[in-house]
Write a structure and sequence with these properties.
Strand content: 25-35%
Order of helices and strands: EEEHEEEEEEEHHHEEHEHHEHEHEHH
Distance between the termini: 41 Å
CATH class of the largest domain: Alpha Beta
Number of strands: 16
Shape: globular
CATH superfamily of the largest domain: HAD superfamily/HAD-like
CATH topology of the largest domain: Rossmann fold
Largest sheet: 10 strands, mixed
Number of domains: 2
Oligomer: single chain
CATH architecture of the largest domain: 3-Layer(aba) Sandwich
Structural class: alpha/beta
Helix content: 25-40%
Length: 368
């Protein structure tokens, strides 16, 4: 049964990304209110979170995407939402659609017609810089935050209170994750507010991409969390989540992440990547497969250790990475990874070294 069937249609944009040839961005047409994640009591928090899921997707809804680049005329591209309300744009760019020197967030604009008339909303697309040589792909669940929202149905039920009653500011960041991630290539935070298609603003020093098995309904929640915890912001690859084996099984988690990572690597064949994950969903074995299937593309792998011991599959993956000369860090605290960063040449500037010194002066077990 649809929720809020008479509410006006709004467009939920997700972060896009582009290379020199193609621009990709997704949005969703919903009949729902925009949630604000403010800490105002547990019942208000539960109502806010339930509202993220109690939305009515609008199928076959026309949406236009406006893109622009200095010196190039604005272009509009028309799309139609699918049965889940998603509209996917994969646009071939003109030959002179190049990069700035440093990574940047570029503004695009969605247009649609609703009950109030013509509507528009800005969205953002990440573009690497012409000087970019390394990008970062990170897991979210149990890597930067213990979400409790993935896994089988029993795990979801067991963690329902955390999911429904804690706002982003109440979630405890994995100790040291903010400093560690910024050492890898943090930088400017995407500014909020209205802009115009074709405008841009600085992004992180290195492009960041997040891959998670969480549902698209939690996109705004996760963006609020990442922003609030001072982590580098980047496109987030989530998935449509149904109550069935196809989306609750562990195999589906791995398949979704692998497909997302393969798509990112294919979009940027000139870049190398650092991969960050944890051992709660087999990230080490999955990342090893990525590295071995793409020789020379994976600069380093970082695994936060959550479990007590490595599985036979993980030990095999570790041995394969060693044989392939792919640097691997495994640890339970990010502050112990700074020497590893330096040893493989990922701390190359004074700013990064200053961040590492901050890590050494901080209690890694504190709850930030």
């Amino acid at each position: 049964m649809p929720f809020l069937p008479t509410a006006p249609v709004r467009i939920q944009p997700y972060f896009g990304y582009r290379n020199r040839e193609r621009l990709r961005i997704t949005a969703r047409a919903l009949r729902s209110r925009v949630g604000t994640f403010e800490k105002r009591g547990k019942w208000r928090a539960a109502k806010t979170m339930l509202g993220q899921f109690a939305s009515h997707e609008v199928a076959e809804f026309p949406v236009e995407l406006e893109i622009a680049r200095p010196g190039i005329a604005n272009r509009r591209h028309r799309g139609l939402t699918d049965e889940e309300g998603f509209v996917h744009f994969d646009i071939r760019l003109e030959p002179d659609w190049g990069y700035d020197e440093q990574p940047a967030w570029e503004t695009v604009t969605f247009h649609w017609s609703a009950g109030e008339g013509q509507q528009c909303l800005d969205a953002h697309v990440l573009a690497p810089g012409s000087d970019t040589g390394l990008a970062v792909i990170s897991d979210i669940d149990d890597t930067i935050v213990e979400t409790g929202i993935t896994g089988d149905f029993r795990k979801v039920v067991r963690n329902w209170r955390r999911v429904l009653m804690q706002m982003p500011e109440e979630r405890i960041i994995v100790p040291g994750a903010d400093v560690f991630y910024n050492a890898l290539g943090g930088g400017e935070v995407l500014a909020l507010g209205e802009g115009h298609a074709g405008e841009s603003q600085p992004a992180t020093h290195r492009p960041f991409f997040y891959v998670s098995s969480s549902p698209w309904n939690l996109f705004s929640y996760l963006v609020t969390y990442i922003r609030g915890r001072g982590l580098p912001l980047g496109p987030i690859f989530l998935r449509d989540w149904g109550l069935n084996r196809a989306t609750f099984g562990s195999e589906s988690h791995g398949a979704h992440k692998r497909a997302a990572i393969d798509g990112i690597l294919a979009a940027y064949p000139e870049l190398k990547f650092a991969l960050i994950g944890d051992d709660s969903q087999g990230d080490l074995t999955a990342f090893a497969d990525v590295a071995l299937d793409n020789p020379g593309r994976v600069r380093a792998i970082f695994i936060r250790k959550v479990g007590e011991r490595m599985s036979p599959e993980e030990l095999t993956a570790k041995a394969k990475l060693k044989a392939a000369n792919v640097p691997l860090w495994v640890g339970d605290r990010y502050d112990t990874g700074h020497e590893f960063l330096a040893s493989i040449g990922l701390l190359t500037d004074d700013e990064a070294r200053a961040i590492v010194e901050t890590v050494e002066q901080t209690d890694p077990r504190r709850a930030v």
